[in-house]
Amino acid sequence: MSEIKVTKASAKSEKKSLDEDMKEKKSSVKIKAEKSDKLEKSEKKPKKDKTDKSEKKNKYVRIEIIFSQAVEEDFFDEFKKQGVGLHYSKVSNVTGAGFSNPKLGDAIWPQVNEIFIIYCKKDEASKIYEIIEKLRAHYPAEGIACFTSKAKMH
What we know:
Layout: H1 8-43, H2 53-57, E1 60-68, H3 72-82, E2 88-94, E3 113-121, H4 122-138, E4 145-151
Antiparallel strand pairs: 1-3, 1-4, 2-3
Helix pairs in contact: 3-4
């Protein structure tokens, strides 16, 4: 077997070489960290809001109103007086059972419902809700239902 002799001088030389390597690696890591920090700062620029400011202030909603055919004329009259709900879709002869008497259009339950679907801005929707509350108070047995969801114009 061959012997390996390590002298103090060679050990010191080896240690010095390792210390220099560590300094270089620390320096390299520090430079990479600084570059990474600069990159993160540049990426944190505030994003521009792409939505139109007027749309932000007055978002659109979808309103579905389900009501007995018997009160349709009252809705039209109130909408006309208030100048709301003038752009709508109407689904006629709707049958179903909600929280009032069923409206099935048959010999036992002869009534039918109507559905108005209205897309409008929130300020117009508020007026429509007031009309619905007024008609619910006037016709408590008719089962007037209203559903609202967010809508976006494209």
